[in-house]
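ok here's the first one, seq then struct tokens
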Amino acid sequence: MKIGIDARMYGPRCSGLGRYIQQLILNLEGQDKENSYIIFLNKENFDDYKPIENNFKKVLVDIPWYSWGEQIKFLKILNKENLDLMHFPHFNVPIFYYKKYIVTIHDLIMYHFPRPEASTRSKIIFYLKDKVHRFVLKNACKKSSKILTTSEFTKKDLIKYLKINSEKIKVTYQAPFCKKDKIASKKILKILNLEDKKYLLYVGNAYPHKNLENLIKAWNIFINNLDFENYYLVLVGKNSYFYEKLFSSSDFQKSKNIIFTGFVPDEDLQSLYENAENYIFPSLYEGFGLPPLEAMSYGIPVLSSNASCLPEILADSVLYFDPVSPENIADTMKFFLEDKILQMELQQKSRQHVKSFSSERLARETLEEYKKIMN
């Protein structure tokens, strides 16, 4: 069987989706010696993946996702490869691709946050783009042989919003990526002047649904009214339009003890995680919730929003708060930092809970679906 995988979003550059693709391919390579694989990569990540097994071959597809080239040029390349099965790990499937394929739907955020402020485009362009994306998504789900999701929450969303038959959907949980050295370099702590400071950590982007506005409001309450003026909030993420928008807000302008690091490579993230008091995740919507699991894999407790799929994924291993209430977020931070026993309990639970997610299982269950379709 000849299987193709669209890996143009391969690697950490594309956040959780890129991690998913990376985990899947690397573990399929370790498990499947029978089928042949064509891995489609773009110019930016072509050298990031180096096949080890002879049955895995990479093909350069220098075509941006969500583009007209994706619908026309990529379609020609796919048809030329004459695949038995294609796996699209995102909804951006060429609408005229009629051969057998599996699609992974990570979330339906466009149905939960259909707001122009979630884009840098004009309102007219945003609404046109939103309509096109919804059409492509529905078409991808309708024509697919199987739909994979990374949570029961997203599966229920597909049933509710797109009227998909539940039997067509298979949940395959993702796993956190944790690149750990035995002794982490503390160079980044010295650069950021964090060596002797207590801090709470957030790693991720600043899209509106990540809810950093309410986190900043909560932080101001925490620092100014709850006597924690010696603590710091560290925000890690690639600078963007949305971070700049956050920085220009009145709440951020009057805040203190907030450090924005910009992008931090994996080799420096370890010490930031391991020396934090906790990881805080205020998101309003997630299809899986990878960041708090990655924090757990570094051995730190997590304070999390109780929204969307997060209770499903994180279970009882974290301390939850109401993400729309800055007061409740601030009170939860205070409650956690004042209870040493709770801190140790959450740390222990986190270390055990994160073990229940496996990239090997993700690949194994995905491979099983490939075989079911072709048999």
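and now the second one, same deal
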Amino acid sequence: MQGHAYSLLRVEEETTGRGETVQLVQLRNPWGSTEWTGKWGDADGVSWADRRIKQRLDYDPKASGDDGLFWMEFEDFCHSYSTM
């Protein structure tokens, strides 16, 4: 959401089961809704298919609703946010 402040909670680098490295950031919308819907968003079942990453990041898709808490790739973060 443009012109809105988000909290940066975590920055993590993980290795997928295919040996690829992914850099992720966890953000929180203080309004408690309206989340990232791209890669690594709550609805992205493909990226979150790796159980080890879900476990290491303590990610539970069943507990994650539209609660304002979400993950995204660092590259997408850099493209989406111009100031920090």
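notes on #2: The domain at 7-80 is CATH 3.90.70.10 (Cathepsin B; Chain A). The longest helix spans residues 74-80.
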